[in-house]
Amino acid sequence: MAKKRVYEIARELGVPTKELISKLAELGMEGLRAVNAVEEEEAEVIRDLFLEGKQQATSDEAQEGATEQESPDEQPPAEEPRPKPPQKGDPRPPVVAVLGHIDHGKTTLLDGIRRAHIAEGEAGGITQSIGAYQAQVDERTITFIDTPGHKAFTAMRARGAQVTDIAVLVVAADDGVMAQTVEAIDHIKAAQLPMIVAINKTDKAAQNVDRVKQELTQHGFVPEDWGGDTIMIPISALNGDGVEDLLEMLLLVADMEDFRGEPSGELHATVIESHIDTARGPLATVIVKNGTLKARDCVVVGTTWGRIRALIDHRGEQVPSAGPGTPVQIMGLEDVPDAGERLEVFPDQKKAKREVSARQLAEEAQRKPSRATMTFEDLLAQAQTENLYVVLKATSMGALEAARGEMSSVEHEGVEIQVLHAGVGPVNESDVALLSAVDSGQPLVLGFGVKVDNKARRAAETRGIPIRTYDIIYDLTEDVRRAVRRLAGPEYVETKVGEAEVLQLFDIDGVGTVAGCAVTSGRVVRGAIIKVRRDDEIIHSGELQTLKRFTQDVREVESGRECGIRVRDFDEVQQGDVLEIYSMEEVQPE
Ligand code: GDP
Fold first, then answer.
1. Contact 509, 515 (CB under 8 A)
2. Distance (Å) of CA 539 to CA 436, 543, 566, 574, 577
3. How many angstroms does the Cα of residue 201 sit away from the middle of ligand 1?
4. Average pLDDT of 581-589?
5. pLDDT grade, residue 378 (50/70/90)?
6. Ligand 1 lined by 107 (C-beta under 6 Å)
């Protein structure tokens, strides 16, 4: 029998879906989502329950919400709610990103929605995209990020920023799931975003919606009409078929997720796009998720700052302020910030400038030594994790399968190899971005018979992500085996190489406490492990993060000299503490 979605039942009843769901929850039928598909019999139960509940409510309006109704016997399967951060404030527009394979119709879709849904009479104002726009649908607003592809998305994720609330995955019905579709899926999964699939180009003769559904099922997304819970909507971005359904579903998902923001709360705003305009200087588009950004605010973004000279909305018009859920372009920054960087408001220029110099210093201090010159072993020796996160690229599906198979043969107690993405083609920037979003674990890009594009190489270098390519599968497996062994075992012995005494402390913004020390015996070396001794007791043991003489980073400081030492993640060091310095000597695994 045909299934019905909850939102369709709401439509039949002539009530907003949100109202139906909250009423049903009140009546004991909890956990329903707008997109749940139920059997016709269950739909009947829902309709009856709602209508009864409504009657009851009107008859005893005075006793507000006093009764607790019994649950009906037959309940549709309730879904586990996705854990989400509690949101405060007023409902705000959802922020939607459209992802998918090249040429599958992302731009056509975004342009179509923009044309049809920007408030009438104002469309003339559209000059140029600021990287996002707001569509009006059923008197509500949806914010779309229209920076093409998932570049912006991954760049943001790489910085830990979660700007997108809902992802739309576009898959062309004639082409099916392709390499970048899989990439997009992996990104969406990693970000744990609610997703709607738009199966596009259904106007084409060669379309095959079922095949796309089948392919998506293989990636863990089962369409509702096949008993799963992924919303998949056939559309034609070209002639508009199904696009309104898609928008409706976005609103429903937004209702379910209940995105909120406090207009007068703390500002949370993230850069999604930036560039230099020859006439207007650096321009950056931010999406405000909480609080309100105002023209004339003094802001710091990454390592740049500025007093906002103008706020420009998605129609190209100047606005005095931008609240939660709104994209806005800002003019007046000193430099171009990166996508994913967060914006903070400062009370005055002086404080903003001070913050920027502190950040620049911190960035300098944290700059990792170039990993390009390190060996594979060096890289892995720094890993402090038991998980290996891998992106695997190969020349063909066959090669990919072979490499995957070989890798799964590598086992080691306590170490998990997680392949976050496996795809055909050269190693690209997105592969690196996917791994930069991993916050604990050793990331590793493995290429089998493929090239690494320049952007990927640069990104990997700055983010310290190793990329290794192989022509022989045996070499790949061997390296993975070594990596796993390395991650698993205690293969180092500590050798004490020196001691230093803490003479004074410096607090450096963005870095933490740096101890000014005198080396009293032996030497201090980079890469050492430091044990902090106080009153003959070791109170902390950690990695040496920075070693400086005056302002210079150095490799080694000898006995009799002074130096600045920071122990990673440790700010409790005190004057008079003794730092015992240990170097880690490698013991060859058998
Ligand atoms: P993007 O790379 O994902 O942004 O894809 P585009 O939006 O640029 O679309 C690629 C091509 O597919 C263009 O020639 C579009 O006209 C065409 N296209 C997009 N959507 C549809 C559709 O629904 N039906 C048909 N027949 N063509 C489409």
1. no
2. 32, 14, 15, 11, 10
3. 7
4. 72
5. low
6. yes
